[in-house]
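== Sequence entry ==
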Amino acid sequence: MPKLKTKSGAAKRFTVRKGGSVKRSKAFLRHILTKKSTKRKRQLRGTTSVNASDKKSVRAMMPYA
């Protein structure tokens, strides 16, 4: 059976943690930042886990992660 390719876009955006959860960074912090409050921008920093409903599709894009 041939090797499966990893989706390169998914590999750049997600990492799989040791326990099996998928880590992602938060969205909406790239541009048009002047109208967003400081609190909102601060809470968008850092990383979070991918929702359970999306986890299966993310893992399918990264078969060897």
User: Anything to note?
Assistant: The chain has a mean pLDDT of 96. The first helix runs from residue 8 to 13. The beta strands are 14-16, 22-25, 47-49.
